[in-house]
Structure formats: structure tokens, C-alpha cells
Amino acid sequence: MKVLVFSVLVLLVVVPLAMWSGASGSFAGTVVTGPEQSDTWVYVQGHNHSVRRVYVSGAKIAYDADVPVAQRQNPVPKAFLPGMRIRVTAEQDDAGEWRATEIEILKPDSPADDKKSAAPTISQSRYTSN
User: Fold this and answer.
1) Whether the Cβ atoms of residue 25 and residue 92 lie closer than 8 Å to each other
2) Closest Cα partner for 42 from 54, 30, 51?
3) What is the DSSP-derived secondary structure letter of residue 54?
4) For residue 103, what are the CA distances in angstroms to 27, 53, 78, 121?
5) Mean pLDDT for the stretch of residues 7-13
6) Helix (H) or strand (E) holding 104
7) Which pTM value belongs to this model?
8) Which superfamily, per CATH, for 22-112?
9) How far apart, in whole angstroms, are the C-alpha atoms of residue 32 and residue 51?
10) The predicted structure's pLDDT at residue 9
11) Residue extents of the structural domains in the chain
């Protein structure tokens, strides 16, 4: 009986807390130009080409450990330029907007990485009639 009462009390406390807090997550991608320019919002395109709008004002910003010291700016930039790679830790609010708590500036892709991730091309010669 005590276990049942304890379980019910835990559910009464945990479930409302889970519902009250927004969904949190972490995602990485490239900053892209969005439909509106703002210092407080950025658009991040993920590897699957989906774009998330992220509120960045007040987020803790740091460099990822893989970024060489020679490539780091001091102080850490507060503006995110298109083409920058970032990792965002954020919470989703009631309206579905992402609000960043932490942002890591990632090491830029090398040109070799760009070639690997490029979409394959189809040779036209395979599909021409003889």
C-alpha cells in the first residue's frame, strides 16, 4: 500500500513538471540567411536540410574544443554570420520556438568534407539512347 501511495505522489509531482518545462534538445548545423535579419534570431540548417529558427539572445557562447586557438576570435563573437557551423543547446517554448541556452562555435568544414557531403551527380551518358 505504501508503494502505491508513493508511486501516485511521484506521478503527481513528476508529470506536471515534465509538462511545464519545454522540450530541450541539442542540434548542430550551419547558420543560413533567413527571411528576416535580426541580432537575436538566427536560422540554423541541419544536415538533413531542415532549418530551425533559434532565439540566441542571452545564450552562453563558447568555442568547441576542436577549434584551433589560431582560428578563435577574442572576445567570442556575439553575431553569427551565414556559413558558421554551430551546435545549439536549446529549449522549445510553448509557441514551438527554440530558445538557446548554450551555443558552441564549431570548427569550419574543410573543402574535402564539402566534397564528401555533396549530392551525387548522375551521368547523362547512362541515360542517352543510342
Assistant:
1) yes
2) 54
3) E
4) 10, 14, 10, 35
5) 58
6) strand 98-105
7) 0.67
8) Nucleic acid-binding proteins (2.40.50.140)
9) 8
10) 54
11) 22-112
Residues in contact with 113: Cβ distance below 8 Å, sequence separation at least 6, in sequence order: none
φ, ψ for residue 125 (rounded to 5)?
Answer: -65, -25
State the Cα–Cα distance between residues 92 and 83, nearest whole angstrom.
24
pLDDT digits (tens, 9 = 90+) for 76-96: 888 899 999 999 999 999 999
Q: Measure CA 22 to chain center.
A: 16
Q: What is the per-residue pLDDT for 123?
A: 35
Whether 47 and 27 have beta carbons less than 8 Å apart is answered as no
Q: Report angle CA 24, 27, 31 to the nearest 5 degrees.
A: 125
Say if CB 92 and CB 98 are below 8 A apart.
yes
- 88/117 Cα distance (integer angstroms): 21
